[in-house]
Amino acid sequence: MKIAIIADVLGExxxxxxxxxxxxxxxxxxxxxxxxVVSPGETDEEGFHSVGKRDFKIFNNYVKRNGVELAKxxxxxxxxxxxxxxxxxxxxxxxxxxxxxxIANELKKPVTTAFHVQPENVTSHVGLQKSKxxxxxxxxxxxxxxxxxxxxxxxxxQFIADTLKKHxxxxxMRVISNGVxxxxxxxxxEKPADLEGKFCIxxxxxxxxxxxxxxxxxxxxQSRYSDRIQVFIAGDGPLRNKLERMGKKxxxxxxxxxxxxxxxxxxxxxxxxxxxTSYAEIESIACVEAITCGLVPVIAxxxxxxxxxxxxxxxxxxxxxxxxALAEKIDRMIENPRLRKDLRSRYIEFAEQFRIEKCIDRMExxxxxxxxxxxxxxxxx
Length: 381
Fold this sequence. Notes:
Blueprint: E1 2-6, H1 16-30, E2 34-39, E3 48-50, H2 60-65, H3 75-83, E4 87-90, H4 95-106, E5 111-114, H5 119-123, H6 132-145, E6 152-155, H7 158-166, E7 172-175, E8 199-204, H8 213-222, E9 229-234, H9 240-247, E10 255-257, H10 261-270, E11 273-276, H11 285-292, E12 297-301, E13 317-319, H12 323-335, H13 337-350, H14 356-372
Parallel strand pairs: 1-2, 1-4, 2-3, 4-5, 5-6, 6-7, 8-9, 8-11, 9-10, 11-12, 12-13
């Protein structure tokens, strides 16, 4: 197939969406598909077409601090790329995505879309991530301005597919995980000498309000074992300075840094516990990467997060935002190494469904069905 992928955001691999989209592109190419990508990212890689970046005037510095750059549509380029493809996959409901879906429909090209941008990811920038009014408005706006023009929506989890249906979305919703890179697998990794005797807790993700990493630091401070705990926060983002200031109050200062996937895989495999504090998540591949390696998680039980469905026992869940409850869960895991050992094997088996090969199989199936306009029974709405 000749597949056009249109991405309003696709630059540095500092967020889950960019990482998973680049992984999709790479794996489709490895299977022999001709993939043409339109995005604001600059690269000499074959098949990539760079467009300009939108000018937000006085807000440009704020946008840059958040590590994302939004594409400025190039209608002539989009017409050429979309006109030459068998199917177009549009990733985001922003300005270039809207232009692309209009052009694809004009040219009568098969269209698939993806739901990668949760309204809470947007409203968190103005402190409204927990406002149902603001988030419901965005669900409606995304639908009216973009998703109602598409037959297919790729949903990384059943959670987000069900959420979209509740908000009146009518489409063939394909629930397909974004998939886990093969580098994430259970391996024996010895802790560095300077960490001997420490209980290592890892959390991974963009350093933003809705990810709530500050909850972990507060909980560790309350823990009965705070002197033994070493926290690793693998990620970058606008809240980095705030988290570093908070970390100075702990017995062992946290290490906060974005890690290449090779180093992250090693860190996962020698850590003792993964804590996922995020309030809002469409999938949370970061959490899936951890459990794929057999690292037992403690996950925030938030109604706006799909990550809670990864928990295999009540020991792995705490009430989102409840610092005392998180501290108690951490202490229980420290005190019960046998529990962690038993859960480890269960998580390794559970995570097999997220292997990238299986996910790409299903993405190919969606593209083929879009070209043929096929819909399985009861797939729509």
